[in-house]
Specification:
A two-stranded antiparallel sheet has the order 1-2. The longest helix has 27 residues, at 168-194. By secondary structure, it is an all-alpha fold. It is built from ten helices and two strands; from the N terminus they run αααααββααααα. It folds into two domains: 3-86, Orthogonal Bundle (Rna Polymerase Sigma Factor, Chain: A), CATH 1.10.1740.10; 94-194, Winged helix-like DNA-binding domain superfamily/Winged helix DNA-binding domain (Arc Repressor Mutant, subunit A).
Length: 199
């Protein structure tokens, strides 16, 4: 049975059809929620709330996008609501996360990158993962969600734009700003902790 048939059955109240629809997406929704919140409990709550909301709203699904995309949009809204309740949505100006003028190489028009020394060793010690996770957590929500959808969920920019309700240009901008902010944050962390930068 294809997705359209399952949707039609689910919309008529067939719970087994609904379960078949969501089974392929539950783990992805969980991983997205976990990455966005950093909390197993919050991620589990978001999955549960997403599925409940999807059951309630299944009759409103019109098939204009894939069912998984529709489910993702519900999960994103649930995540935003939870983060807003926790007041975790950091609304600092993006300028605070962007590289300072001192980190711009005007001659080559590029951002100075830190020499990460031996990333394999850091990775083995889980330090690099923790540092990256902390850097992502520090991003404002609007940049974090775009970055996670693009690079962790490996969605196209068009799908990211659809999910966050923005234009493709705006989605690209958010992803780019997140990348620049993360690069600057990571460079500063490594410079502070490991002592030398690339010249």
């Amino acid at each position: 049975m294809d997705e359209k048939q399952l949707v039609a059955k689910a919309q008529k109240g067939d719970f087994d059809a609904f379960l078949l629809l969501v089974n392929d997406h539950k783990s992805k929704v969980y991983n997205l929620a976990l990455k966005m919140t950093g909390s197993v409990q919050d991620a589990e709550d978001i999955v549960q709330d997403t599925l409940v909301k999807a059951i309630d709203k299944i009759d409103q699904f019109r098939g204009e996008s894939a069912f998984g995309t529709w489910l993702y949009s519900i999960a994103l809204n649930q995540t935003r609501a939870l983060l807003a309740n926790y007041k975790k949505a950091d609304l600092k100006p993006i300028e605070e996360y962007l590289p300072s003028i001192n980190s711009i190489d005007t001659e080559h028009n590029s951002i100075r990158l830190f020499d990460w020394r031996d990333p394999h060793k850091l990775l083995e010690q889980n330090e690099l993962k923790d540092i990256i996770d902390d850097a992502i957590e520090a991003l404002p929500l609007i940049y974090k969600e775009a970055f996670i959808l693009r690079y962790y969920e490996e969605l196209s920019i068009k799908k990211v734009a659809d999910l966050i309700g923005e234009s493709v240009a705006s989605a690209k901008s958010r992803v780019l700003r997140a990348r620049v902010a993360l690069r600057d944050h990571l460079s500063k962390v490594f410079e502070d902790n490991y002592g030398r930068t690339m010249q």
